[in-house]
Amino acid sequence: MFVSLLIKGIIVGLLASIPLGPIGVICIQRTINKGRLSGFLSGLGAATADTIFAAIAGFSLTFVISYIEEKQILFQALGGIIVFLLGIKIFLTNPVRQLRRHKRKKNNLVEDYFSVLAVTITNPLAIFLFIALFALLDVVTDNTSWTHSLVTTSGVFIGAVLWWYILTTLVNIFRTKFRLKQLWWINKVSGAAIFTLGAIAILGLVRLLF
Q: Is the pTM of this model over 0.90?
């Protein structure tokens, strides 16, 4: 029973993490510019947030879900603004200076972790994704015990971490093949993509409100 729940949790973690949204772009960009550890810890921040969402869904914390539904617009606005600003920061970053700084001193890995955790946690609507995935795999029912939910949530974390480890490892393999001019373009394209997604989210909310 527990092994089955753990495996289903891992599958949910993978399914929730694989789609490459702005978080995936950030992790790829950091892996290329700052190294695999930076990219992986950024992904670990996303995995932590996803595990929190999965726990809320798995433990059926209805009062939290109700609060999120009430404050949906606020959360979307906050997430859009953070993604927009992060995209601008990446767009304006000079990869040459970043590489020189990386050679002189260690990366701020704690900042890498918490920055992505903050971005991901501002999208609590992802809780409903986990509810849907749990229902799809017949994981959670009204009578599910806390032990079952804990095992499933642990599986989600393992699956998410596994995905970010695989992604950053694959990107890191090809990292040495990039030249400085290519790194410059990667920063511009990834930064533009991220802040565009943030701008679309903000504009969508403005249109909805007015």
A: no
The count of structural domains within the chain is 1
**Helix (H), strand (E) at residue 168:** helix 146-173
Q: Provide the residue type at 197 as one letter.
A: L
d(CA 192, CA 70): 31
Q: Choose among 81, 88, 23, 120: nearest CA to 206.
A: 81
Closest CA to 81 of 26, 124, 119, 128: 119
If you search the block for the tokens 């433990």, which residue do you land on?
59
Q: Give 122's contacts (C-beta < 8 A, 6+ positions apart).
A: 75, 78, 79, 82
Domain span including residue 89: 2-209
Written as one letter, the residue type at 14 is L
* pLDDT at residue 130 greater than cutoff 80: yes
Q: Quick one: angle between helices 126-136 and 2-17, nearest 10?
A: 140
